[in-house]
Design brief:
heterodimer, A: mainly alpha, two-stranded antiparallel sheet, 8 helices, B: mainly alpha, Rna Polymerase Sigma Factor, Chain: A, Arc Repressor Mutant, subunit A, 72% helix, globular
């Protein structure tokens, strides 16, 4: 009890005490409060900035994703058959058929080409490819250009060799179907078989490797990345057999140049 | 009626202060600063130092004014903030030590300090070791319980009790010493 009184007396004296702060006390506190307000405002601005940038990023993301989904075209999975039949002799019909959407049919009479080749390409059904509208249009334009080139060639043949060219090119309508066109495959489709090539060289005593080297050199000069074998086969196809006997290398080089220029133009 | 109107006035003052009204904040400061400075002075010997701690405490008060619930005592709320500010300052500065050193105390004879000046009492408290001072201030002046002190100072309840006991003895011993010196001077 006595100790409690001692405590109470002390507590009472101290509780009743009032100490006046210095004259500058409020001023100092006011300055500190100003600083706090400023930092609060800054923090608010920073938070608003973060929120605004997050919203902007989200809206850009949504806009971009929406745009992407609109441009994406789902192509149906189906098999596309590319068939090239070349069986051309004097006054014979050259028929090129591309199944499905693009079906250019070229009928031509030429002097002499004796080839028969059929290429069938099967596309994996499980392969899922998505193309944007832009990419799709680009591919369609490329195919159109190829068809156009074929058409021109056919007309040329008609003018020089009194042949009849009949072309039927269906309108190319962009569809949602996948189209696979391999330039090398198409080229190869119009070439000789390896047996025929071997017979050729045996007959005229020509070293085929030398010719391949020449083709490779020419291709390197032209910056074209094409298999020399394919090019050689193409050139061999185009050279008249009768010229072979006369001056093979001269004729070969000129034809090779023509083919390389044609391919380069087509690729451009 | 007068009490109600005063209460409403202080509420309006606080509302303005929450919105950042400097005038209202200054009024609150002027009203409570003398008591709060006295509290801070109990913990810190230097009056300027005590004023700095008081300003820190008021800064916290104005920052957190919207958290004060109108049901309680506003002064009591500010007091708590001031005490906590002083304790955390002393803890940071490693001023808070709970010594187990045994002093040579006389038998517990209680004295009447009614006639002693508050300055002399403050001198006695200032001379207390920090641990004793802290517990004594919290228990005897602020009215905290031992378990609350234990929690606040991160000590055990028994330590709090022993510190208080030692603080009392120390104060009484020094009070006698002080009176003897005064008597000798006369």
């Amino acid at each position: 009890m006595q100790t409690d009184n001692f405590d109470k007396q002390i507590a009472e004296k101290l509780k009743n005490r009032r100490l006046s702060p210095s004259g500058s006390a409020w001023e100092r506190l006011s300055n500190q409060l100003d600083e706090v307000d400023q930092s609060k405002r800054k923090n608010k601005m920073v938070v608003l900035g973060y929120v605004a940038s997050i919203l902007l990023l989200v809206s850009i993301g949504i806009f971009y994703l929406k745009g992407e989904t609109n441009n994406l075209i789902e192509f149906s999975k189906e098999e596309i058959l590319t068939k090239t039949n070349i069986k051309v002799k004097e006054n014979e019909i050259l028929e090129t058929t591309i199944k499905e959407d693009i079906q250019p049919v070229v009928l031509a009479k030429t002097d002499e080409v004796e080839k028969n080749k059929a290429t069938t390409k099967t596309i994996d059904k499980d392969q899922d490819i998505k193309l944007t509208q832009k990419e799709f249009n680009k591919k369609i334009d490329f195919v159109k250009a190829e068809i156009k080139d074929d058409k021109l060639l056919a007309i040329k043949q008609e003018l020089t060799k009194d042949t009849v060219v009949v072309q039927k090119i269906k309108t190319v309508i962009p569809t949602t179907k996948r189209i696979y066109v391999n330039a090398d495959d198409l080229l190869y489709a119009v070439t000789h078989t390896s047996e025929e090539v071997k017979e050729y060289y045996a007959k005229y005593n020509i070293n085929r490797n030398d010719i391949i080297d020449t083709v490779r050199y020419k291709l390197r000069k032209s910056n074209l990345k094409i298999d020399p074998e394919v090019i050689l086969a193409e050139v061999e196809n185009a050279i008249d057999e009768s010229y072979y006997q006369e001056n093979f290398m001269d004729k070969f080089k000129s034809k090779l140049s023509e083919v390389i220029v044609a391919i380069a133009e087509r690729n451009n | 009626m007068k009490i109600i109107s005063l209460h409403t006035k202080s509420q309006q003052q606080r509302k303005k202060a929450i919105k950042g009204d400097r005038e209202a904040q200054e009024q609150i400061f002027n009203e409570h600063a003398p008591v709060m400075l006295s509290i801070c002075r109990q913990y810190v010997k230097d009056i300027h130092h005590a004023e700095d701690l008081m300003l820190q405490g008021f800064l916290k008060v104005f920052k957190n004014l919207e958290k004060f619930k109108n049901g309680g005592s506003f002064e009591g709320w500010i007091r708590k903030i001031m005490v906590n500010t002083c304790i955390s300052y002393l803890r940071k500065k490693n001023h808070l030590e709970f010594t187990d050193e045994e002093y040579q105390f006389n038998d517990l004879i209680t004295h009447n300090v009614e006639n002693t000046s508050v300055e002399d009492i403050q001198k006695l408290i200032d001379a207390l070791p920090d641990g004793y001072k802290m517990v004594f201030n919290l228990y005897a002046i602020e009215g905290y319980k031992h378990h609350e002190i234990a929690k606040k100072l991160s000590i055990s309840e028994s330590t709090s009790k022993s510190q208080l006991f030692k603080a009392r003895k120390w104060l009484q011993a020094n009070y006698i010493k002080m009176n003897r010196i005064k008597d000798a001077d006369r």
